[in-house]
Amino acid sequence: MDPLSPLITALHDEGRLRVWSLVITVFGDSVQLRGGRIANLRLQKLLGRIGIESGTIRTALSRLGRDGWVTSEREGRNSYYRLTKEGLAQFADATSRIYAPARTQPVTSWTLAVGADQPGIPVAPGVVLRPADQPGPLPECAVTGDLTSLSAALRAKLLSKAHHAALIALFRDLDALNRASLTPLDAAAARTLLIHRWRRIVLRHPEPPTELLPDTFKGRDPRSEVAAAYAALTPIAEEWFDTALQEVSPMPSPHPNFFKRFR
Questions:
Q1: What distance in Å separates the CA atoms of residue 233 and residue 25, rounded to the nearest whole number?
Q2: Is the pLDDT of residue 211 over 80?
Q3: DSSP category for residue 127
Q4: Which residue, of 51, 110, 160, 200, is most buried by count of CB atoms within 10 Å of its CB?
């Protein structure tokens, strides 16, 4: 059985796949800190392992080119793609959120903040709850101190239905990865799938501390588990990026910042 089958099936069962978004995940995770460009052949091999057809990849790259995200260049018989300056400008904030380290200590002090555009978990209209050490713009009103009570009923309502479903899917992927034995290409594809799912969660939903997760996820920490899976996959995955493919050379060695992810 294909060890990536549960992850690939889950990806394709979630409705129409935005391949251009998956390509952006590859750039952010595997290209930008390894020389900044990727050969079309390598991209085709990587996404082909996930079940994406070459014609669909070409269409996605064409769209990203029209939208000003990527540019291409020829080198011999091969095409290489890299992000444009405009594309790179979109990455900084997203990258810091995706690869931020997990919290290592329990939250002991909380802020209940009132006001527009406040970071945190909504607990009432215009009111969010967040760790006191989490930065944010000056609220209209804030109370900081101990969280003395939080009912299971309210805890169950703190995540939107979409966020709850996304975390269930994430944990299914993580559990499947924990049982998988992977080749270097498998690991590169698995890491792409993992970060693509995690990226969509982090950029679409506020990230709750584990203390605020519903009982459904008791004992689980999404960011810590993603970080652990990423650390396990990366040495194997990097072997594939270090390997030549036909006439395509290995990718450049990772930038030192690559090894700071989730740390």
A1: 16
A2: yes
A3: E
A4: 110
Each residue's pLDDT tens digit, 159-179: 999 999 999 999 999 999 998
Structure token pair of residue 250: 């290995």
Query: Can you tell me the distance from the alpha carbon of 162 to that of 201, in angstroms, rounded to the nearest whole number?
Result: 9
Bridging pattern class, strands 37-39 and 110-114: unpaired
Distance CA 58, CA 19 (A): 10
Q: Which of 58-67, 87-96, 99-108 has the lowest mean pLDDT?
A: 87-96
Q: How far is CA 36 from CA 27, 43, 72, 194, in A?
A: 8, 13, 12, 21
Whole-angstrom distance, CA of residue 118 vs CA of residue 212: 17
Q: Please identify which residue in the block is written with the tokens 């935005």.
A: 18
Which pair of tokens denotes residue 90? 């979109």
Four-point Cα dihedral 147, 226, 6, 54, nearest 10: 130
Write the CB contacts of 140 (distance below 8 Å, at least 6 apart in sequence): 114, 115
